[in-house]
Amino acid sequence: MDDAPGVRPLPSLVALRCFEAAARLESFSRAADELHLTHGAVSRAVRAVEDQLGVPLFERRSRRVYLNDHGRLLFDGVHAGLARMAEAAEAVRRRVAQRPLLLSCEPTLLMRWLIPRWGDFQARYPQQTVHLVAGGGPVDWGAGLDLAIRRSDFDWGRSTHAVPLCAERVGPVCQPGKLAQFFDAADGGAYRLRADAPLLHSKTRPHAWTDWSKQQKTQIPSAPAASSLILEHFYLSLQAAAAGLGVAVGPQLLVQDDVQAGRLAAPLGFAADGSQYCLLARQAWAKDSAAQLLCDWLLEQMEHAQ
Known about the structure:
By secondary structure, this protein is α/β, with parallel strands linked by helices. The protein has 2 domains: 13-97, Winged helix-like DNA-binding domain superfamily/Winged helix DNA-binding domain (Arc Repressor Mutant, subunit A), CATH 1.10.10; 101-306, D-Maltodextrin-Binding Protein, domain 2. The protein has helices spanning 13-25, 28-35, 39-53, 69-98, 107-124, 179-182, 208-216, 234-242, 252-261, 290-305; strands spanning 58-61, 64-67, 101-105, 130-134, 147-151, 161-173, 183-185, 191-193, 199-202, 229-231, 247-251, 271-281. An 8-stranded mixed beta sheet has the order 4-3-5-12-6-11-9-10. The chain is rod-shaped.
């Protein structure tokens, strides 16, 4: 932006900082030490201010410098201005330090895994405030999000900072009381998915069954059973499985609590599908930050889940 007509440009902020330190300390050498500059750099900066204003600002006596009347007038304004800027910068730091982290998490993971464990994080770190929001797919960092937990089923860009949390492991799950209806018992106590078993699909993971069958090198019925369902969201397929309506592909992370509580059975176990959950951020966070505390806690919780 052009300067307003008749308004002369100010000396640079760097030069004014050098002037303020030299005037306050009455020494170019001490000012240089405080600002981590050389004596010559401070001297040149002060000379630049004097040249731009067209008047000397110091009386130089031996190794000391003293403000003259012009220098005192400038010092009062610059010193007060730098103090205001320092106060404003500190206020911003305090605001950032107190602002809660905003963590976006895939909805099913949030509901079925993160929220049931969130009390542990709050108990360990009561001084940290983290707000949880549901979200999936590409992350809109412009919406104020600080962190996001996503599965690596899309490209989030090379500039995104990503920390792997755990591999995705999946397997068929159903209501325990429906095992005999949906699975055949094979030799050695193993199970095999029946050809007429109703499969539960979801629009948010439409290829879950196909991907699982390829990974396991097994076949699933090409024609779905009449009682098979296509549900709007992935978590609805898991809910339908618990209700005995069919067999869903269940990620271990999302169904382990239901399996342990006896609400779901996983007769074929779980196997890695090649994807993983990651903690994402726009840029790397500091090692002593709240984000690092949260990352360490997530890694610990997910390690216990494997």
